[in-house]
Amino acid sequence: MQTRRRVGFCLNDKKRKRMNLEAFVELCRNRGIEVIQIDLNQPIAVQGPFDVIIHKLSDVMVDAEHDSQSQQLLERFEGYTAGHPRTVLLDPLPAMRRLLDRFASYRIMEGLQTAIPGEWVCSPPYMEINSMELSEKQLDRAQRSLPFPIICKTRVAHGSSSHEMSLIFGPAGLWDARPPCVLQSFINHSAVLHKVFVVGGAHFTVERPSLKNFPRGHSDRKTIFFNSHDVSKPESSSHLTALDEEAALPRPPCDDVIAAIVTELRAELGMSLFGVDVIVNTETGRHTVIDINIFPGYEGVPQFFSALLNHIETLLQEKEGACETRGSPEHPTQGGEVESRRVTGTPPLKTSVTPTLPPSATP
Ligand SMILES: Nc1ncnc2c1ncn2[C@@H]1O[C@H](COP(=O)(O)OP(=O)(O)OP(=O)(O)O)[C@@H](O)[C@H]1O
Ligand SMILES: [Mg+2]
């Protein structure tokens, strides 16, 4: 007889509503999977057991840096998962922590360039500004090492203020940067962003509006302050996203290159639910990775529920397989070493990925 399969969701109200969790609960019920909404304010053990936990604790993780209540909630969650290594966690907290810090996530993006052969993929040149104030020396280095225009983003990659950005056009504008931040070269991509949404072994690419092209090189133009949600949401409409008439047409992304980026990041991060923002450089055609997001909204992906359900079922089957192996005489139970590896939800180890590209797709 099959035992009851239980999946816990730990999401804040906003994410729960956005995702339409109620509808997903129904879908799971029809497939014999019980969904429990975890209340972090109560002991988790009494709400379990869980085969899989899906969470988005990004805000708790960011708040825990300065708020003792959030710190306690996070400790409760970490305590539970450490004590239940057979529960699959989507996704592991250390990987998520890397993506909450743009300094760490930009290093991951930078690594893609060498990991994927053929110069198809890159990330824009950038500079970390960690001090609370900009020094003359840093300004000088930024001017010499980063081509203008430059886009300035907060170091913390989560929360409402993390979407406040600025476009800096010349050396004088660098004083408008508000550290700690990242200064990154702006890449012309003819106002089209490709949001790649990953769910386990599947991924989906959706087009979004994005920033228009700007002349390369420095100018006296005043810094433009903007909120990224005004330029790259499905409904975004801003003068910053309207292409000038003479602008070059956007170049389409290559599916194989996108697949190579996803394969590489899945293995690097060990995550199942994440998003990658890719733009295609209008001049060079290079696929440029500008952002990696934790458990994104999957807006525009009607297959999200079915892909998530498939992924959960795959994990449950793997888990059941691991339990059977453990129970057999050749594989007596040994403190869960094999299972804890198998049940972290970590995708297969990295294999070298070389995109097979159509002859027309030149970088
Ligand atoms: N280097 C760049 N060159 C050109 N455009 C860029 C660059 N970096 C960011 N953008 C534009 O700014 C937008 C916001 O950037 P980014 O994705 O880094 O911010 P975010 O607020 O963290 O995004 P999200 O909403 O995905 O969390 C992008 O969607 C894109 O339109
Ligand atoms: Mg983004």
TrEMBL record:
Catalytic activity: 1D-myo-inositol 3,4,5,6-tetrakisphosphate + ATP = 1D-myo-inositol 1,3,4,5,6-pentakisphosphate + ADP + H(+)
Superkingdom in the source lineage: Eukaryota
Keyword ATP-binding: yes
Pfam families membership: Ins134_P3_kin, Ins134_P3_kin_N
Residues annotated as domain Inositol-tetrakisphosphate 1-kinase N-terminal: 6-95
Cofactor note: Binds 2 magnesium ions per subunit.
Cofactor: Mg(2+)
Domain Inositol 1,3,4-trisphosphate 5/6-kinase ATP-grasp, residue spans: 120-312
Documented EC number(s): 2.7.1.134
EC category name: transferase
Record's signal peptide: none
InterPro entries with a match to the protein in the record: Inositol_tetrakis-P_1-kinase, InsP(3)kin_ATP-grasp, ITPK1_N
UniProt keyword terms in alphabetical order: ATP-binding, Kinase, Magnesium, Metal-binding, Nucleotide-binding, Transferase
Spans annotated as Disordered: 321-363
Family statement drawn from the similarity comment of this UniProt entry: Belongs to the ITPK1 family.
Free-text function comment from the UniProt entry: Kinase that can phosphorylate various inositol polyphosphate such as Ins(3,4,5,6)P4 or Ins(1,3,4)P3.
Quaternary organization: Monomer.
Protein name stated in the entry: Inositol-tetrakisphosphate 1-kinase
Organism, as annotated: Huso huso (Beluga)
